[in-house]
Every structure is written in structure tokens, then in C-alpha cells.
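BUG-500 | component: ligand-complex export | severity: low

The export step for iron/sulfur cluster jobs runs without errors, but we want the raw record kept on the ticket for reference. Input record follows.
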Amino acid sequence: MKVQHGMRRKPDLETLYSINADGSHNVLQPADVRGKWHTRKNIVFTILIAIYVVVPFLRVGGYPALRFDIPNRTAYIVGHTYTREDFYLVFFLLTGFGFTLFAVTSLLGRLWCGYACPQTVFLEGVFRRIERWIEGGRNDRMRRNKGPWNFDKLWRKVVKQIAFLGIVFLLTHVLLAYFLPVEELLPALLKGPEDHWLAFAWTMCLSAVLYFDFAWFREQFCVIMCPYGRLQSALIDDDTVIVGYDEKRGDPRGPKGKVTGDCIDCGSCVNVCPTGIDIRNGLQMECIGCTNCVDACDSIMEQVGRPKGLVRYDSLRGFAGERRRWLRPRVFLYAGLSMIGLAVFLLTASKRTAFEVTLLRARGMPYTIEGETIQNLFTIHLQNKSTHEQESSSTRCPRRAAPPSSGRSARRKWRSNRSARPRSRSSRSCRGCSTADPSPSRCASPRRTRTSRRTSNCASKDPDHDETSSRAGPGCGSSSCSARWCWRTSCSCGSRSSTR
Ligand code: SF4
Ligand code: SF4
């Protein structure tokens, strides 16, 4: 689009208003707006910012309400501890929230963008507000920007940038409190970066990105980069509630008394738009649903004595005078997928145990033989996933106990233990060691499972090795194999008969 020198460029459907024809940034100066939607948004922004700042300081059950301890691969979420083994839950959680967002978008348009997206909350709720305090309203800012560099312009620009930097550092250090213990954060800040250079580097990088975004890039993030914004055309339809202009009522536009339409073509709705579009051109992808144009137009309608709502929340079907449908197949689909994701997450999280035991064969030599004693080597990995201390104990299987060094009766008892017949399966006791506790972690019997039999008594690495098979594996082939308990049918040590 060509704009002649001296002519003011108007928003259109062919170009992005925030980008000039030469590719440079067309810095927007949205006008101030007052109205009911503005007040509601400010309340929501204040609540969200307060939550963001307060949450790292809250504790539930003695632990942080929300903290991601990256070095220990642990997350604390409202009193529950989640470790890296629980990371798969993130998939279901994100799926649930993602489809919830889809369902809300298909019903109410870009509600998230206008009210809850961090970009909008901090840009509109903090940075633009500070800019207005220091540099004044839209007309003052535009006049000063066009004018020469004098003291008035210089001190305002410098103070504004210092304030922006201060806010950005504050935000990034609050974010840091979601990853570091709050009680360690202040001493770490006072000490200097050498003791925590990684956290320092992350904070500096993030601060630079946020400063660039909030001080200069601004609405371009929404209209160029945001992936959610690009999905809008796929998520919404004619029944979705959006911010729109009532063309039937507003057109033809013009000064009051000269045209029949209600729009007096004052341009207020365009001047307040943070993405620089003209809502009267119809639904556009750049619209973030901030409702600034609704408040601006309502205030104009009030001044000219016409009914409010020329620019309002409604669906395309509603603007056309038809009946709007709330429940549509896409709403059911998104809501259903969202409920599946969240239900699986809640179910899995609620069934999660606070204590986990993993029994692994020790690396290297799997067993040792000393006299009549065979010792199997295992690594037991105990994991306490709860936020409090837990005790664990283990008992030694009587079949696997070492023979007593003295005492005839003790040795007799030991022998009877070793030769004890396994109990029946129906009693739910261990088949191999006859302990009453059927828990696999309590049993060291070679008859417990095929795997344990193989790994605990034979040096063979053959995964198909099985003493019950007539097609036994090739044997361990070890010339030093002296396993009395070897289960292989073709073991070179010839110990087959001792086990059958
Ligand atoms: S058109 Fe209206 S609702 Fe959309 S971004 Fe602009 S001011 Fe906000
Ligand atoms: S604010 Fe209302 S009256 Fe003014 S141009 Fe926009 S739609 Fe028309």
C-alpha cells in the first residue's frame, strides 16, 4: 500500500498496520480509554499480577505451593511432590488445558488474549500505564516523539526506560522464585553472580527478552509471533462470541444528521486499538479481543445520544440478525478431549504412590558362593515421593540365610528352612521361599520368577535361557562356572541334575 507524504495511513485488510511498507516498526500510540470493560479488565489484571507475585511465597504443608526444582528434577505443586518419574503426567495436564482453551475459544473467542495472556496483562496493566504516567496521553506522546530532542523529552524517555528496566528485573526475579527457594533468593542476590552464575545468566537473558518485548516489540508479538493467534481461524466459527462492529446499524457512516447510520466515523475505536486495526473492517486475526474499542464506541454513543453497543460482544450470526447457537459439535469435541486429558491426569495423579521401590540386579558379578551359601547381589532403589519422611525395612528370606556356624538345632532349622516346600499358590505366599509376605521386594527366592531364577543363578547372558525348555540356550560357556543352582540343560558345568 502506498501512502503519500503527509497523508495519514489508515488500517486496512491488506497490510499489517504495525509494520511500515519498508518493514520498519510503525510504533503505535493507543489512546486512553475508560469504560466498564476497562474496569473489569483492570480488576482481572490486578488479581493475576498479585497471584504471580504472591504464589512463590506461599507454602502448603511446609513446602512451596508451586516450585520447579530443576537440579533435583522435582516439582512441588500444592503440597504434592512430583519427580521426573511423574513427568508423563505433564502430557495429560497440557492436553487437558490445551483443549479447554480450544473449547473456551470456540465459545467466547480470544478471551484468553484480552484478559489473561501474560503479554496483555503486563503490557496493558503495567508498562503502558507507566508510559502514560511519565509521557502523558496519546496526543502528548505523539507530539513529543515528532518534536526535537529537548530536556523535557530526554528526561521522560530516560526515566521511562529506567522504570521499564526496573519492572523487568522485578518480574524476572519473581519468576526465579518459582525455581529457587525464596529464602535462598535474597542472599543469592546480595552475594553477587559468581556463586550462581547459571541462574544469573538465565535471569539476564530473560530480562533482555522481556525488555525488548515490552519496551519496543509489543503488539508485534501478538500479530506476528503468537501461535495461538494463528489458530483463531480454525477455532472460531459464525457462532463464536467476538468483538465486532454492527454494520447493519452503523453504516452508512458519517457526521450525525447527514447519514442514516449510527457510526459518526469519529475514529475513536481505531485510536484506542493496541494492534492498530479498524474493527469496522470486520473480524481480523490481529484483534486480541481487548474490548478497548467497545468502551470507546460506547462513550461516543453516549455523547451523541444513541444506544450503546454499536461495537460489542456478539457472534457473526448475531450481527447478521440470526439466532446464535452455543452448543455445537466442535464445542463438544474440544470439551470432550479436554475432559479426557484432565480425567486421566487426575486419576493417574491420585493413584500415584508416595513410595517406590525398584529392585535391580547388581552390575557385574550377579552372585557369589561361599561354602554352602549363595549370595545374590541386588541394587534396591528406594524413592520417597512424599513431602515427609518415611521408614522402610526389609527381612531376609530364611531359605537364603547363611548357615549358622554352631549349634546342631540351629543348623537343623536352617536345613529345614532351605528344603521347605513352597506353599500352594492359593495361599498367596511366595512359591519359592515360603515367606508369608508375597511382596516381590521381600523375596529373594530363585523360584520367584523366571527372570530372577535366570539372573540370580546363572551367568548366562542368553535372554532365551529357560530351564523348563527342552530347547535350552547354549549355556553360559564359562569355564569357571560352578553354579550348583544352574538351571541350564546344557551348562558346561554339568550341574543340571542338581536342580531337577
Ligand atoms: S479491534 Fe477492538 S477488541 Fe480488537 S484489538 Fe482492537 S481495540 Fe481490541
Ligand atoms: S467509535 Fe463508534 S462511532 Fe466512532 S468510528 Fe468507531 S464505530 Fe464509529
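Assignee comment: Attached the raw record above. The first strand starts at residue 59 and ends at 60.
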